[in-house]
Amino acid sequence: MSFFNRMFGNKRSAESAKERLQLVLVHDRTDLTPAELEALKDDLLKAISRHIEIDPEAVQIGLERDGREQRLVADIPLRSVARRRAG
Amino acid sequence: MTAKVVTITSGKGGVGKTTAVANLATALAADGQKVVCIDGDIGLRNLDIVLGLENRIVYDVVDVIEGRCRLRQAMIRDKHFENLFLIPAAQTRDKNAVSPSDMVRVCDELRPDHDFILIDSPAGIERGFRNSIAAADKVLVVTNPEVSAVRDADRVVGILEAEEKYAPALILNRLNPAMVKSHDMLSAADVLDLLAIQLIGVVPEDESVIVGSNRGAPVALEPKSRAGQAFRNIAKRLQGQEVPFLDLDKQDGLWGRLQRLTGGRK
Ligand SMILES: Nc1ncnc2c1ncn2[C@@H]1O[C@H](COP(=O)(O)OP(=O)(O)OP(=O)(O)O)[C@@H](O)[C@H]1O
Ligand SMILES: [Mg+2]
Question: At the top level of CATH, which class does the domain B4-261 belong to?
Answer without folding.
Answer: alpha beta
